[in-house]
Design goal:
- The structure holds two protein chains of two kinds.
- Chain A contains 17 helices and 19 strands.
- By secondary structure, chain A is α+β, with helices and mostly antiparallel strands.
- Chain A has one domain: tRNA-splicing ligase RtcB.
- In chain A, strands 7, 8, 9, 11, 15, 16, 18 and 19 form an eight-stranded mixed sheet that branches.
- In chain A, helix 10 packs antiparallel against helix 11.
- Chain A is globular and about 60 Å long.
- By secondary structure, chain B is an alpha+beta fold.
- Chain B has a single domain, classed as 3-Layer(bab) Sandwich (Archease, Possible Chaperone, Chain: A, domain 1).
- Helix content of chain B is 25%, strand content 39%.
- In chain B, strands 1, 2, 6, 7 and 8 form a five-stranded antiparallel sheet that branches.
- Chain B is globular and about 45 Å long.
- The chains are: A alpha+beta, B alpha+beta.
- Chains A and B meet through strand 4, helix 8, helix 10 and helix 14 of A and helix 2 and strand 6 of B.
């Protein structure tokens, strides 16, 4: 296969590839992709170089328009894109966060081993499927009034814990303590609230899932122990979902508004989906206040699902929560914009870091990570596709210096959903998974085909790039034994 | 009969191209394409209708807002639409009546959850018949 990307990118080392400013007139910084040579072939096909270059047009962007190795063609921003803009004269772009605001991942540990769970996996997956509303059009079991929804939007996970969904300790080990500051429900449309109320406490559809997995490899024993992972064979639970229709509506509303702001502030962009406004403008501030509401909605969502997950385990295994040791390891956002501080050319600067399909990866000692992880760094949770494996990583100093404290977020698609549906049948995917010892329960077989392993890059290759580049480091790998899919 | 719309592959998401003798028809076909992603249109009956009135700064934005309004109605009221009468359409205004019915799990199979219509690759083209293109986030 020819490698046309060789004409475009400049190799810095085996894992860093630069797109020079000369690639496209109007780029104010170069692009930088963390990837390997073999993965670059996919990137070219998907035209994501254009998208990385387009992000480099954003006013106030510093250093590089970054892309993680799981990068793929998105809308506006590439998925796997990271862009930091100066607060004082830069912009915030809702498209740089995406529609599923604070789509993210939570990981729970257990005291259970594979031997204990295997015999009951069918029952467990069925129980989880019944207790956690999932699938397209599903409604939540929680009924909140308009006033209570506003509380959810301001307090996030902390609201859920106060209502009896989960433990105070869960909040401590959640990014932003599950409650992003600056949330203002008055900056959210009534349409978003109407979409949000019935969907609170639902897994959703598409790539969202809950997975029961087994620790398959441990790369850093001490860090793993700090997270409550003792040995290979230990069972963990992954929860992947976001802010549902609430977040989608917030993004749609603000894209519309930003479309006008772009004209007002005289910003010129190569793609309308990059619409933005100065971080310090009324439009920029309003978006960040609404985005924080959606982030808090998503944390509440994952918090409630965590509670029902625990209930299901208690019921199926007939043990108490403390016997089960079903504690939260961590919870991270994959789609978010954050105000963070970095040293640029020797100066400390406030930046708005957009992570569109990327994970925060703060190093040991960073004040924003919980005390228990202060000595090892922030846990980074990377789900793979449902047939392969997932990874637990840690943030690093290199990420702080080179990628605005960010790393990859998952495997990254290589095949479109439609192509996956055409080439695979859901029942065959379920059968193939069963043959590999993975029990799957879904309301929609078609969506199973869309999410088959074949549609994704190998997450191990993605994670190895981030490990070798130094922007995160491997702690453990887990392989699935049971999955519920929306 | 010439096709009303087609579905375009995209790695993470899905696009549509809709055609029409005039823009009204192209906008209606874009809405049909949207609901064809969500369910089988043949299974949907015209039991109820909803009226929509929108204003936007330009025709492209109007298309995105029109489709997002239908996604909103699906999400909040669980209505599957199959027929659309665009009664008024100019560069900045749209009036439409959409016909369909509420989701009934015994007769409707839901396929793809559509999060939103995006502005990426958005096109409204009048040169060669009327043709519109939209990418959805799914």
């Amino acid at each position: 296969m020819p490698a046309p990307w060789k004409e475009v990118v400049r190799k810095i080392d085996d894992y860093r590839w630069e797109i020079p400013r000369s690639y496209k007139q109007g780029m104010s910084v170069p692009g930088l992709i963390f990837t390997s040579e073999s993965m670059l072939n996919h990137i070219w096909e998907e035209q994501v170089f254009q998208q990385v270059a387009n992000v480099a047009f954003l006013p106030g962007i510093v250093d590089h328009s970054l892309a993680m190795p799981d990068i793929h063609w998105g809308y506006g921003f590439p998925i796997g894109g990271v862009a930091a803009t100066r607060i004082k004269d830069g912009v915030v772009s809702p498209g740089g966060v995406g529609f599923d605001i604070n789509c993210g991942v939570r990981l729970l540990r257990t005291n259970l081993t594979e031997e204990e769970v295997r015999p009951k996996i069918e029952r467990l997956i069925n129980e989880l499927f019944v207790s956690i509303p999932s699938g397209l059009g599903s409604k939540g079991k929680i009924r909140v009034s308009d006033r209570e929804l506003d509380e959810v939007l301001v307090k996030g996970s902390q609201w859920a814990v106060r209502k009896g969904y989960g433990e105070v300790e869960d909040v401590v080990v959640t990014e932003e303590s599950g409650c992003m500051k600056g949330a203002d429900p008055d900056k959210v449309s009534s349409k978003a609230k109407k979409r949000g109320i019935p969907q609170l406490g639902t897994l959703g559809s598409g790539n969202h899932f809950l997975e029961v997995a087994v620790v398959a490899e441990i790369y850093d024993q001490e860090a793993a122990r700090t997270m409550g992972i003792g040995d290979v064979g230990q069972v963990v639970v992954w929860i992947h979902t976001g802010s549902r229709g609430f977040g989608h509506q917030v993004c749609s509303d603000y894209l519309e508004l930003m479309g006008e702001a772009v004209k007002r502030y005289g910003i010129s962009l190569p793609d309308r989906q990059l619409a933005c406004a100065p971080v310090s403008s009324p439009e920029g501030k309003d978006y960040l206040a609404a985005m924080a509401c959606a982030a808090n909605y998503a944390w509440t969502n994952r918090q409630c699902i965590t509670h029902w997950t625990r209930e299901s385990f208690v019921k199926v295994f007939g043990k108490s929560l403390s016997e089960l040791g079903l504690e939260q390891i961590y919870d991270v956002c994959h789609n978010i914009a954050k105000i963070e501080e970095y040293t640029i050319d020797g100066d400390k600067q406030g930046l708005c870091v957009h992570r569109k399909g990327a994970t925060r990866a703060f190093p040991a000692g960073h004040p924003d990570i919980p005390d228990i992880y202060r000595n090892i760094g922030q846990p980074v949770l990377i789900p793979g596709d449902m047939g392969r494996c997932s990874y637990i990583l840690l943030g690093t100093e290199t990420a702080m210096k080179e990628s605005f404290g960010s790393t990859c977020h998952g495997a990254g698609r290589v095949q479109s959903r439609a192509a996956a549906r055409r080439s695979l049948r859901g029942v065959d995917v379920a059968r193939a998974l069963a043959a590999r010892g993975i029990t799957v329960k879904t309301g929609d077989m078609g969506s199973l085909a869309e999410e088959a392993s074949e549609a994704y890059k190998d997450v191990s290759e993605v994670v190895d790039v981030t490990h070798n580049a130094g922007i995160s480091r491997k702690v453990a790998k887990a392989t699935p034994i049971g999955v519920i899919k929306g | 009969m010439e096709k009303d719309f087609e579905i375009v592959d995209h790695t993470a998401d899905v696009g549509i191209i809709a055609y029409g003798a005039d823009m009204n028809q192209a906008f209606a076909n874009a809405a049909r394409a949207l609901f064809s992603l969500i369910t089988e249109l043949d299974d949907v009956d015209e039991v109820l209708h909803r009226d929509t009135e929108l204003t936007a700064p330009d025709e492209e934005s109007l298309l995105v807002e029109w489709l997002n309004e239908l996604i909103y109605l699906f999400d909040v009221e669980n209505i599957l639409f199959k027929r659309f009468d665009i009664t008024q359409l100019n560069n900045t205004q749209l009036k439409a009546r959409s016909y369909g019915e509420k989701v009934d799990s015994s007769k409707h199979k839901l396929k793809i959850g559509v999060k939103a219509a995006t502005y990426h690759m958005l096109k409204v083209d009048k040169d060669d018949g009327c043709k519109v293109q939209v990418l959805f986030d799914i």
